[in-house]
Amino acid sequence: MSGFFxxxxxxxxxxxxxxxxxxxxxxxxxxxxxxxxxxxxxxIILDVGCGSxxxxxxxxxxxxxxxxxxVDTNSDSVITACNNNNGLISSGHSEILKSDALTLPFPxxxxxxxxxxxxxxxxxxxxxxxxEIYRVLVPYGKFLIIGGEYLGSIFDERNxxxxxxxxxxxxxxxxxxxxxxxxxxxxxEIHEEREKGWFCTFARRPWK
Length: 208
Ligand SMILES: C[S@@+](CC[C@H](N)C(=O)[O-])C[C@H]1O[C@@H](n2cnc3c(N)ncnc32)[C@H](O)[C@@H]1O
Known about the structure:
The protein has 208 residues and is α/β, with parallel strands linked by helices. Strand 6 (186-193) and strand 7 (198-204) form a beta hairpin. It has helices spanning 14-34, 54-62, 75-84, 86-90, 126-136, 156-166, 173-182, and strands at residues 44-48, 67-72, 94-98, 111-117, 137-147, 186-193, 198-204. The chain has a single domain (38-204), classed as Rossmann fold, CATH 3.40.50. Helix 1 crosses helix 2. The chain binds S-adenosylmethionine (SAM). S-adenosylmethionine (SAM) binds next to helix 2 and strand 2.
């Protein structure tokens, strides 16, 4: 392979190769996590903390006739996510807005699915954030949290150092389950890909 990445895609090595590997692993984690819910082709979906917009791209394939919204509190992330998804945005399949997870600019009962990939670590009050997500989900709507850092993983030492450096808190999967239930969610499931250190929680807003 030639071009910008040179041989790195096929045989990752050096700085660029590490970036390619990291992105590939990140996308594999997103794909693995998103597989824990079923999607309708017309689903309206929100990705909270959309970062560079990788999950948005993946979700657009799962809901080809629906709409994928993204929000992020950081202006640079919003710009990057828009640039990375400009085709989806210009066709009306996606819309990305600047917003904090705690005050989502959407009406009640608006989304079939809400996803949060590698972002909940930064939320100051997890239960309050979960309640806000509950508010915008339709009854029986689904909420997925996906990430590569939690307490009780085989990578605890690495993850705790990362959390200390960033000044954020990690949770056990049991704690996440309890917080989801406290926010009102039901049918909470915990999934782990232990060898890779990934986790995914699945939860539903109850029927009325
Ligand atoms: C690692 S990135 C997420 C990657 C992204 N989900 C993807 O699929 O590419 C984490 C993002 O969460 C965002 N974030 C952190 N706290 C937030 C909050 N309270 N509300 C909204 N976004 C938040 C950050 O600005 C950052 O862009």
